[in-house]
Amino acid sequence: MENFIEELYYGNIEAQNMKNKKSKSYSREMKILSENEDVLLKKIPEEDKKLFLEYVDAWGIVDGESVVDGFITGFRIGAKFTYDTFVSVESDILKEG
Known about the structure:
By secondary structure, the protein is an all-alpha fold. The protein is 69% helix and 0% strand.
């Protein structure tokens, strides 16, 4: 990747698709979630399965929105950090006495 900013501009960088090393605990918890959902779906009466699946889907949407919000917040904090580091003259070090 020669020019990160250009690649970002043209939409060639998608953070959600970047490889991320998953920890062993993450993999373990994902397995637990999957196995427990399967067990619950077998135990829940047929008329309640739709309600349960709507709950699971809604939780997925809420969690996804939370992840997006965290990403945006982190990006903004990074931008503010960069601005303060390279642009802002409010630092005591840069003030003339």
